[in-house]
Amino acid sequence: METIRFGIIGCGLMGREFASAAARWMHLTDPRARPEIVGVCDTNEALMGWFTSHLPGVTQTTTDFRELLANPEIDAVYCAVPHVLHGDIYPRILAAGKHLLGEKPFGMDARQNAAIMAAIADRPDLLVRCSSEMPYFPGAQRVVDFVTSGAVGDILEVEAAFLHSSDINPDKVINWKRKVEVNGDYGCMGDLGMHVAHIPLRLGWRPASVHAALVKRVTTRPDGTGARVPCETWDNATITGRVPGEDGGFPLVLKTWRIAPGESNTWSIRVLGMRGSAFFSTKSPRQWQFMQYEPGGPQAWSVEDLGYQSLFPAITGGIFEFGFSDAIQQMWAAYLDELAGGDARGFHCATPEEARDHHAILTAALASGTTGEVRTVDYAP
User: Fold this and answer.
1) CA pair distance 66, 294, nearest whole angstrom
2) Which positions ≥6 away from 137 have C-beta within 8 Å?
3) pTM attached to this predicted model
4) What structural domains does the chain harbor?
């Protein structure tokens, strides 16, 4: 089995998730390649101790990402840093000759994303993908298969959502995601937009125009010192787009909410059609719902328990449940499979082109939400 040596830039929550997935790679039964994390980087030295304690292969720790990129022992990099840094660090990773899996949104704004796309074009020899793990849940894969089989027929509407209640407490101490200069003007759309756009874009559903309802409910938050400071970014966004088609097309609804009462971390996809419909939500991670019907016939949702039916086979028995850490590992398995010459079993990670298209949607949605007008989505040629 091929070993691909990784460096991590950003040792926070998602960096630890990747490390955990790599440490239990034996969970997968027949992977084409395996990751070995050999270097970690973060400006906060205290975060790196967890990696050196749990990963014996880590031989480099540094607070300067340029030192990590100069390491000839590193083949690929996972980069999980605040959005404002994407436009600088992602091109440097590619210029150093490292493959890249980067966190969304692949640039704080469309300008940064354009710089990243130019750097990718300069290095066609490198594999670049964007992190988006939720479509690797078995139920999400079933929805994709149901649609691509033609079972839906003419589409009536598609809704994709990612809902959090993490910011419903107005006294939660502010973090970088609430600051425009670090997170960007997109707010919740930049943080969650790739998650909801991944499957629609993969299936070719690109809205020609959008109208966005943006909500900024909490305007100040405590800064941890007893003062309150401006909370600048959008809390919730509901984007309604129109996907064109010969039959008039259909509406596509994308919801990215940071203040969604009762929701901890709920991702969902719903496709309604004239011949069939399908739905999956991480609220019920082992199930998906579907309907198939003839014109004039009865419509009744069927619910199927899937258990553990992963894209990349694993040792877990089929009667058990699939979870978030499994989705992370499946996403990484897809990336490693491509690096080793495979086809990611037909469902590769989000591409730079999909990330670019989601920027076009978010840019139009931001303009719509601030003016109240319907905006055309300007996709790159």
Assistant:
1) 60
2) 267, 280, 282, 285, 322, 327
3) 0.95
4) 2-130 (3.40.50.720), 136-322+331-371 (3.30.360.10)
Q: Are strands 209-215 and 375-376 parallel, antiparallel or unpaired?
A: antiparallel
Return d(Cα 14, Cα 17) in angstroms, integer: 5
User: Backbone phi, then psi, for 364, in 5-degree steps?
Assistant: -65, -40
Cα(197)–Cα(191) distance, integer angstroms? 12
Q: How far is CA 268 from the centre of its chain?
A: 13
User: Backbone phi, then psi, for 195, in 5-degree steps?
Assistant: -60, -45
Q: Is 318 helix (H, G, I), strand (E, B) or coil?
A: coil
SS3 at position 219 = coil
Q: Per-residue confidence of the chain (381 residues) as pLDDT tens digits?
A: 899 999 999 999 999 999 999 999 999 999 999 999 999 999 999 999 999 999 999 999 999 999 999 999 999 999 999 999 999 999 999 999 999 999 999 999 999 999 999 999 999 999 999 999 999 999 999 999 999 999 999 999 999 999 999 999 999 999 999 999 999 999 999 999 999 999 999 999 999 999 999 999 999 999 989 999 999 999 999 999 999 998 889 999 999 999 999 999 999 999 999 999 999 999 999 999 999 998 888 999 999 999 899 999 999 998 999 999 999 999 999 999 999 999 999 999 999 999 999 999 999 999 999 999 999 999 998
- ω before 105 within 30° of 0 (cis)? yes
Dist. CA 330–CA 2, nearest whole Å:
17
Q: How far is CA 30 from the centre of its chain?
A: 25
Please tell me the number of Cα atoms within 13 Å of 40 on its side-chain side. 27
Q: Where are the alpha helices (DSSP H) in the chain?
A: 13-23, 48-54, 65-69, 86-95, 110-122, 138-148, 180-183, 188-202, 324-339, 352-371
CA–CA dist 285, 322 (Å, integer): 7
